[in-house]
Amino acid sequence: MSNTDSDKYSEENVQLARFAKAMGHPARLMILRMLGGESCCFCGDIVQDLPIAQSTVSQHLKELKDVGLIQGEINPPKIRYCINKDNWQIAKTLMDDFFE
Amino acid sequence: MSNTDSDKYSEENVQLARFAKAMGHPARLMILRMLGGESCCFCGDIVQDLPIAQSTVSQHLKELKDVGLIQGEINPPKIRYCINKDNWQIAKTLMDDFFE
DNA sequence: ATCGCATATCGTAAATATACGATAAAGAAT
DNA sequence: ATTCTTTATCGTATATTTACGATATGCGAT
Prior knowledge:
Oligomer: homodimer
Strand content of chain A: 5-15%
Structural class of chain A: alpha+beta
CATH topology of chain A: Arc Repressor Mutant, subunit A
Low-confidence stretches of chain A: none
Radius of gyration of chain A: 14 Å
CATH architecture of chain A: Orthogonal Bundle
Mean pLDDT of chain A: 93
Number of strands of chain A: 3
CATH class of chain A: Mainly Alpha
């Protein structure tokens, strides 16, 4: 997936593909489920729950943040991650429409 | 995503991640949309609609077939691709549950 | 000023994904 | 038997992903 996808594909497909791709790894799904609903989590809690190294978790968090599905608020010395509800809703709607 | 994911992650997350990953490219979303509803398509129709080479389309079709979202029936000399409704329903349900 | 904690980033290795052109394969039609 | 059409597969190049350990950063506490 290159950065010229928007030349070739509709904005809707590019956007949905970005969300789907972000969901395309079990670790990231686990993170998203942990943050689902109202609950936010500290990064450390997530690291504890996932069977991978801290640096790898941080990478996954960054990907989810880049695609807009989560956001982190600093709460020194911890960082609290939450779902980004606006984008979550956009992703949900795109998915719902996709599956009819 | 390795083949030992099921050691580390729940079956549900592994399965949903596989579907999401398959949806994680605009070309594959286009294909799935073309096949949506009742309509099946010949491979050639898909190749014509996508802005990529025939061999690349064939690769994408294979990925979608491998993950179970589509199936192809031979109709010489063409091949007619359709949504695999059972797995489509499974994917839809997993997605719906995921997004609450 | 230094230490400790929580998290991000760097460097890197290995695996996977994306794309293409060329070629193979299967079967219908001549 | 040869040719044509359609699709899959091969070979290959490049880019991206995933993972880890090591190191850096930010900041509160000592």
